[in-house]
């Protein structure tokens, strides 16, 4: 069973917009966008971001996952992809990309990245955005939407923007960009994170936007991939070195589970999580990760709690989206 510690927020369509949505098309080409923002403690900032998204009712927020210890929030938006979806000038086809752009702008207006602290690594105010195709939508559609958004964030908002996955011409990976920019580098405390580039000059040229970074915004990474699940397993320990060993042996990079990326992140007093990206959840899901972590933790003498997903499944997201536009008798 999926465990969602935080209640999702749903923004239903305005009555004036509901009649213009063609229900037969809803299942055909749906795009999902996940937006990760480096803030969860400033409620005023989050309200501003959500208000910006609500101006685009055909791209509702289906899930909101907040984590105060990580000081991070994740939003999941869904909208219909049209064949000309990525046009940011057409009101009928830009709902998803325009909603996300409005959220990014609101986040930059409300949050100073230089003041951020938390136990989750990050590279910017808006740390990561990823587009996923749902139902019969194609990865190419998601990639085109990602590139269109990146052009706007770079040129209009003047933030260095990097592309990955299907949105990048050479298929560059998210973790390769993060590694180059210092995402995985802890500070002297070993369980806190530096928080992205510490110099105005970047070691990697962005795909859009300026080549220099402002510390108040950081950088932005936008990509397009097939579905990815996030599954976190809490370990009742303060031994970051031991949990890092476990995370390494869980990950495909460390010879563990294929298509799994894992890292150890401090999560409150006496808890460290093995936080995982499941790049191919149909082959390696949360249950296998849970079993692997429990096996390795037993060898270290560490107790393990029940893991949880940070979002709904693809099927649940589609269903919740469709329910928003269901006729009410």
TrEMBL record:
It comes from the Eukaryota. Residues 29-226 form the Formiminotransferase N-terminal subdomain domain. The keyword Membrane does not apply. Gene3D superfamilies: Formiminotransferase, C-terminal subdomain, Formiminotransferase, N-terminal subdomain. Its EC number is 2.1.2.5. It holds the Pfam family FTCD_N. It is an enzyme of class 2 (transferase). Keywords: Transferase. Residues 231-321 form the Formiminotransferase C-terminal subdomain domain. One of its GO terms (molecular function) is folic acid binding. The keyword Nucleus does not apply. This is glutamate formimidoyltransferase. It comes from Arachis hypogaea. The lineage of its organism: Eukaryota, Viridiplantae, Streptophyta, Embryophyta, Tracheophyta.
